[in-house]
Amino acid sequence: MSKRDPKLPERTYNPQEQDINLFNTWQKEKLFYFNKESGKPIYSIDTPPPYANAPWHMGGAIHYSGIDMIARYKRMKGHEILFPMCLDRNGLPIEVQAEKEFKVSMHDVPREEFLAMCKQILDRVGDMILNICRILGFSNNSFDWEDVYKTDQEQYRALTQSTFIKLFKDNQIYEDNRPNNYCTRCKTTIADNEIDYRSGNHILYDIKFKVKETGEELIISTSRPELIPAIGVVIYNPKDNRYKHLEGKTAVTPIFEEEIPILLHHYAKMEFGTGILMVCAYGDSG
Q1: What CATH number is attached to the domain comprising 273?
Q2: Which pLDDT score is estimated for 1?
Q3: Where in the cell is it found (predicted)?
Q4: Count of domains in the chain?
Q5: Where in the sequence is the domain holding 238, given as residue range(s)?
């Protein structure tokens, strides 16, 4: 080394290189592996598996950083930490992503062929998510592919199915009829938070109800007459003098003849339609 050579080979810290080297050392030395025979009190983290249909976003990384902070704190307090890494590899979003990427319909290709398309996406995106976790330095027990639990594994499916069956036999799960959102393209039910509502101009219908106590007609304006079976209550604005005599009375729905309480609530707009609003148990974001 000449006098002109720097004492340090690098004058700046390279986090991309140094951090991953440190992480690899942790994994190589199995510093965070779960040892149930350690004799320490076990602190188990039910890690929510990140969805592997698309690259991870900032919110997911921040969420897991908080979980990792708790794991590290409990580890320093002397606990044996069960903190598995995992990937959620089931569900409609993955199927939709495969349809978009491969330009096919799940209903038009053989099942095994479509599952292979889904697996390509899951493996690629899953590797991306695990790599982000490595870069962030998470202290999960292991990032080896065989140690990462995946929701499409036979063992995982057997466990979830047997758990469901047990809960059903113990009367902790019940079967019932209820309205569901149905996607005509995907041909399956979908959750409320997967529904998008569009604003637009619609026909306003005047529907005739009856007041049980007086027999008078009660006209309610709505653009959603198909939701009559879902009505739970009928409301009018407390400032609306037209309907003060209806307080505490009962409306009877057409066709179904269900008895619905009439209540006061400021949410009803006097200037909209007839000023009376039907409040439904499902079918609308409001």
Answers
A1: 3.90.740.10
A2: 53
A3: Cytoplasm
A4: 2
A5: 205-280
